[in-house]
Fold this protein.
Amino acid sequence: MKIPVVSIVAKSGTGKTTLLEKLIAEMKCRGYKIGVIKHDAHRFDIDHEGKDSWRLTQAGADTMVISSSEKLAMVKKTSPQTELSLEETVESYFQDVDLVLTEGFKKSAMPKIEVHRHERSNELLCRTENRDETLIAVASDSSLDVDVPLYGINDASGLCNLIVKRYLS
């Protein structure tokens, strides 16, 4: 069975992470196992200088895993030529969940919910000259004339109902 993926997209500073936190909590309350992938267009580090994990990757480890009874984290070196696609990442690491929510990946072919904050922008990313047909809903702090369902920016319950109906029923 293919794991459904829904991407939360918006311009920076609009509230993607805040909405994603609410969606995760709501889906967990409903009994679903949720995976999350955060896209970072910039270089990031999760192993910090001086820590053992950092020292091991600095020594040349191509893959380094930190494991405990509660968590597992992996640092895997990649290059732009070997970066996994969203689909490959889900296939490789998320087979134990019911749904994968992503933050970002606005250029992917996955279904998208766009977060819109009036003070941040007057237009939607997914409804500009490059119309994105994968948009399934908008979560906004203002009323908009859109061709997909419109939810309040904090309506995690309503958005979860949509996701469950479309992808988990």
The radius of gyration is 18 Å.
